[in-house]
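Dear support,

We are seeing what looks like truncated structure output for some complexes. This example has two components. We would appreciate it if you could run it in full and send us the complete token output so we can diff it against ours.
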Amino acid sequence: MKHRRLLVLAGVVGVIALIVSLSVAAAGSKRAAQPQVAATIGAPKVPNAAAIKKKYGGQKITFVGDSVGNGHVRDAALAKRFTHDTGIQVTVEPHSAASDQAYSQLARAFSEKSSSIDVAMIDVVWPGAFAPYLVNLKPKLGKQSKLHLASIVANDTINGKLVAMPWFGDYGILYYRKDLLKKYHYSAPPKTWADLFTMAKKIQTGERSSNPNFAGFVFQGNAYEGLTCNALEWIASAGGGHIIDNGKVTIDNAKARKILDAFRAQIGKVTPTGVTTYQEDQTEHAFDNGDAAFARNWPYQYGIGATAGSKVKGKFGVTVLPHGASGKPVGTVGGWQLAVSKFSKHPGAAIEFVRYMTSPPVEKFDAITNSNVPTIVSVAKNKAVVKANPYLKPAIASVSRVTRPAKFLGTHYNEASKVVYQGINQILTGSSSSQVLPQIKSKLQQILKSK
Amino acid sequence: MSSVATPAPVPRRGRRRRRTKLQRRQTRFAWLLLVPALAVVAFVAIYPLGRTVYQSFTDQEFLAGITPTKWVGLDNYHQLIHDTIFRDTVVLTIKFTAITVSIEFLLGLTIALVVNSHFKGRGIMRAIMLVPWAIPTVVAAKMWLWMLDDTYGVINDLFVRTHLISHNQSWIVQHPLVAVSAVDIWKTAPFVALLLLAGMQVIPNDLYEAASVDGANQLQQFWRITLPLLRPAILVALIFRTLDALRVFDVFQVFFGYRLGSQSMAVYNQSVITQDGHVGYGSAVSVAIFLIISLFVVIYVTVVRVSDE
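Here is the complete output from our reference environment:
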């Protein structure tokens, strides 16, 4: 009798725990996948499907894909179409939303020679580190790679081997509320960071009376890879170099100190205090919920803000990021590539999947439904694509791009980036830059030396 | 390093008296029965531990094959002594352990006393009490992260409405230790309560009856009967919780990621290995953590032994 009661008790607890876990998980996925744009236009069909089906039909591959914004919805839609057309079963697994953690997931799989991953999306800064574990795509996809931007193809070519195919590009842009600019009598978005802070302050003060959650400016301030990208933009746009220039650590200079201290002074003033915990998704939520006047993010946010569910639909614009007093606007180069693991049991099928995913029709589909930057030149110039993605207009798209110092660091990039984002996060949460930057500098020099 | 010798089954001879033939045969048979268990322990515990210690003397990298492993002697440990980030993580983790274990113990004891008394719906109460503990930590941490959100979080909303705070706080940034301790206490106080409840249920009722007859009041019964007889259960609960709190990973990882000054020992260890790729140095960190936790085990075991005598 006693045992039975104990069992019932355990059962009840288990069921409640399961319900709570599932509802939390469901709430999470709902939040991430809110506007399902990808469903409105069908995924393009796979060319040459019959031949692929004959050769590889029935094989199973795993694709480690996107998790930010609507990325996973798009991946699932494309994989479903690919499976339908070719008979190759594709399992889509979203990677970690923080790219440095996605890196360690892949690194672990590669170091174990695991065949659990066939196709992976890899960040623009990783090809150097992962090259030994990736299939050379040149023999089969070399021709298709010529359609893509030459600079990205060069980035993905290591020792003459094409280890990854460009998938979509990225650069930081400024999102601003057109309606609020007008309301507070500003005729144009800010040109310099100082302008942005002044405008953000004024708008925030005005809006707070009706919305206590309103913030002037949001960006990615959490201690993770995204902060390295943000900080590089601030420093480079103020003429403070690119963290490492020509193999020398340059991050500790007067201009960098000045701009970083200027940002620190704004935390909790025109930004929420919690901005130092924000990643892309939190930035997008705040802006698309109508709770921010300005936001720095990648282009993917445009598509989410422009869909029906968004509170800022039709009310916002995009432009180049502001610059420091003595600099010019820049945008950090981001972007994702698709690579095939050397330990894949079905490299043939995996390569066909990459061929499909990086083809012009798919990039066009992704650009229109998901507002990602096409890496194929002809797609980026396509009228329908530019109409859906105003940041592709030459005035914004031709902004000078800055790259993270991956080429000087090779396999040590992740470690070095951690030093940078941890240090910058420390500055944002209160430490002075004259104290932190020398520490970053000496750690980076150590890493460069040990290489 | 692929095979580790299991301790040879040497039967301990009687200190003075010689054992009979039968005794010796039985001892041998007992060892034979123990071999599979010992082999499993050697394989799952001693081998990985030995491997970690060995790696801590090398410069092994995560993406092996790019740089071959070299023996570097005590270099990693030398570096570890001067590693201020690691020192900060140790201090933070011990602070976290002290705060959470003491509050969990007091809270757990209170809950156990309540659900040990007779009242209607006691069964349901016991089930509800266990729910936080049954939720996976990562899920619980995510849930709390949303509740603690600086803009949209329910906790800020509640506190502002009840005028406990004047404006929204960013708990993760401004009160990291409070935030992370709250989650841990919420989640594991029920576990402490469960262990203490089990201890209370084996205390014979006659003792309380006798005490009542002798005129002892409830408080006296608690101090003179419950608490002394509960001591073994208390020690078990404290040991479990202390060791668990010292190796905390999930809540810290979900809440702070790799934020400097907010990393637990385990988070730092993981970041050294998978982010920086330094398996050798990371192993030295692991060994250091192992030693720190062992220190606590030794302290507890000594306390138990001393109080038993």
